[in-house]
Structures are given as C-alpha cells and as structure tokens.
Amino acid sequence: MKIQRYEDLIGSTPLVDITSLANPKVSGVKVLGKCEFLNPGFSMKDRIVKNIFDKAEQAGLLLPGGTVVAASSGNTGAAVAMLAAMRGYKAVITTSPKCSEEKVAVVG
To answer: Which of 2, 25, 34, 45 is catalytic?
Structure first.
C-alpha cells in the first residue's frame, strides 16, 4: 500500500484477531481489535477530528488560512493541532488550569 500523504494513514489501521484473549462463549465467534494507536497521533481521536475537519471544509465553514479553536486537555487537542498543521490552519487549544504540563507540551 502506497501512502501519498501522512494524513491518509488516519483510519487505515489494522485489525488484529484477539479471539484467544476474549474467550468467546459461542463457538466460531471471532473477536477483532482495531489498532487505533497506530494512527499518526497514536489515538482514535485522529479519525474523529479528521471527520470533523472534512465536514467543516465541505460545508465551507473551515476555509484556507482559518483558525480552529478547541477545548481539550488530551488526545482530541493533540489531533486538532496535528491536523490543523497538516492542512495549513492555525490552531488554538484551550485547557483547564488543572491540565498537566506534559499534556500542554504535547499540543503546544
């Protein structure tokens, strides 16, 4: 699989058979886990934020050079910052004063 853009990796994460860990009660059932930690931002939030950006762009609500504002102290804020940078937007991420310095550093 050839990836043209880093962003195209979002959501293209593999499924792993974890049936042996789940011990299903019904014979023949297969349990799969989606490896969302393999997204570029290491989180399933990448997929959610990409969808939000796509829909906002399609609706004309997010225009080139625009600014994205998000309130987050975790993976969503990191995903917003990452995708905004990839697409050429400015990003403003607000957090609670209780947010750890480590989390602030990730999105800063």
So the answer is: 45
Beta bridge partners of 12: none
pLDDT category, 84, cuts 50, 70, 90? very high
45 is a catalytic site residue: yes
Phi and psi at residue 86, to the nearest 5°? -65, -35
pLDDT in tens, 4-17: 677 888 888 899 99
Are 78 and 43 in contact by the 8 Å Cβ rule? The answer is yes
88 closest CA partner among 66, 58, 60, 108? 66
Rg, Å, the chain Cα set: 17
Residue 69: helix, strand or coil by DSSP?
strand
Contact 11, 47 (CB under 8 A): yes
Residue 108: pLDDT above 90?
Answer: no
Using CA atoms, how far apart are residues 96 and 99, in angstroms rounded to an integer?
A: 5
pLDDT tens digits, residue range 98-107? Answer: 777 877 776 6
Residue whose tokens read 């602030």:
104
